[in-house]
Amino acid sequence: MRMRAPLAVLGLLLMAMAVDVWAATTQVRSVRLWRAPDNTRLVFDLSGPVQHSVFTLTSPDRLVIDINGATLASPLNVATANTPITSVRSAQRTPTDLRVVVDLKKAVTPKSFTLAPNQQYGNRLVVDLFDNPADANPPPSLPETSVATAPSVPISPSKPDVKLTPVPSGKRDIVVVVDAGHGGEDPGASGGRGQQEKNVVLSIAKELQRQINAERGYRAELTRTGDYFIPLRKRTEIARAKGADLFVSIHADAAPSTAAFGASVFALSDRGATSETARWLADSENRSDLIGGAGAVSLDDKDRMLAGVLLDLSMTASLSSSLNVGQKVLSNIGRVTPLHKSRVEQAGFMVLKSPDIPSILVETGFISNANEANKLTTSSHQQALARSITAGVKQFFQQNPPQGTYIAWLRDNGKLAQGPRTHTVRSGETLAMLAARYDMSVATLRSANALKSDELRVGQDLRIPSAEVATQE
Ligand SMILES: [Zn+2]
């Protein structure tokens, strides 16, 4: 599949010479487009390097891209739905100078740069059209149907600068993105007295954010801060853009039977995970072109098979973390409100489908049940729910702190008060799996429980030794 190095170099040399001899100009072969939350990216695929300049014109708003030493290989075709672009035109100013004009619905701030070839793509000219801040707020109320066509941000989570906000000792905060379900023209479920899910869950989400922010080493961000709708896929994109270590979506249930009651916690179903992995892979053409991607899952310069394996591993790891944090949140919620199901349920909810971010969905109760609807609209109950979710989240991260965080630093320096914990064995779990989850050796786990064999039975309670003991091995 791969040419031996000397041959490859020779090949490139010959190609370079051929280009030099047969074509004085670089060809612009195609243009690709992505719409991100606050910008639109145009990528021109080129047959070689170019010089270029970019400037804007007003009345009407246009962006002009002059590409010197270039001609157009074929007409530029690009879908501009959901972008500030109305059309992309081009003209040859001189036999070797190409001008591309981007017609705009509103003014943008352009930024452009060129990229050298990599294993997947040749020379490229990248032009980013940043929305002007005045246009960015308030967030648009988009119909749900636009989700399917809205291009997504690339897979590689380009951890944003905000995540590096230092806490004392230069360790970053753990970022929890809290998502209040529904909003705007989508009220969600409703109660008998007109209570609306979108309002209840926003109150709980804001309280949860307040409580998490009060914890040192943690920072919470909201996907929506008011009464407007955000497409489901976009909620996961926001989580990625904010550098989420965990995504928590808050909802309230409704059921045909007004008697139904209780809270539940969901993680993504295995089936949902599998199909989502397939979807991301199918879309890897779009997603792998991330510029300078250095995130946890970069599909750039990996071949397709390897990309699939990496993505699958990431999805599996996230799912296992989601189930873990979900169970902790669920048992804490069980202390403040009845549970609808005593285990984390799994479903193919769209908002849970980030391959690289552990994600849970909390149904805080049934708004269709008069008693629970009353409780859900009470601020004392909202605070209690938020407290229980915060407790579960903290328990999870004390055991699984992401690298480079203040909490990881605390743990690594023996400063986390960790009493002995217990784990109730669930179907399919093995000793090796649990040892890995709790970050200790199988031998430690075995000896802490005086196990004679590695056989576990469902429902068995295991003692999980504290981290300090585990590291003394
Ligand atoms: Zn809902």
Identify the notable features of this structure and list them briefly.
single chain, 25% strand, globular, 3 domains, 473 residues, 6-stranded mixed beta sheet, disordered C terminus, disordered N terminus, Membrane-bound Lytic Murein Transglycosylase D, Chain A, Immunoglobulin-like, binds zinc ion, Aminopeptidase, alpha/beta, 32% helix
Layout: helices, strands, pairs:
Elements lengths: L4 H18 L3 E10 L3 E8 L4 E7 L4 E7 L1 E3 L12 E10 L2 E8 L3 E8 L8 E8 L1 H4 L29 E2 L3 E2 L1 E7 L16 H17 L4 E5 L9 H10 L4 E8 L10 E5 L1 H13 L1 H4 L16 H30 L11 E3 L11 E8 L3 H7 L2 H21 L6 H7 L8 E4 L6 H7 L4 H7 L12 E4 L2 H5 L2
Parallel strand pairs: 1-5, 12-13, 12-14, 14-17, 15-16
Antiparallel strand pairs: 1-2, 2-9, 3-4, 4-7, 6-7, 8-9, 10-11, 15-17, 18-19
Helix pairs in contact: 3-9, 5-7, 7-9, 11-12
Q: How would you describe this structure to a colleague?
A:
The protein folds into 3 domains: 24-136, Sandwich (Immunoglobulin-like), CATH 2.60.40; 161-406, Zn-dependent exopeptidases (Aminopeptidase, 3-Layer(aba) Sandwich); 418-471, Membrane-bound Lytic Murein Transglycosylase D, Chain A, CATH 3.10.350.10. The chain starts with a helix and ends with a helix. With 473 residues, it is of the alpha/beta class. Residues 1-5, 16-22, 137-168, 284-302 and 468-473 have low confidence and may be disordered. The protein is built from 13 helices and 19 strands. Helix 3 (197-213) links the parallel strand 12 and strand 13 (218-222). Helices cover 32% and strands 25% of the residues. The strands form 5 sheets. Strands 13-12-14-17-15-16 form a 6-stranded mixed beta sheet, sandwiched between helices. Strands 5-1-2-9-8 form a 5-stranded mixed beta sheet. The chain has a 4-stranded antiparallel beta sheet with strand order 3-4-7-6, with no helix packed on it. The protein is globular and about 80 Å long. Zinc ion (ZN) binds at residues 181-182, 188-189, 197, 251.
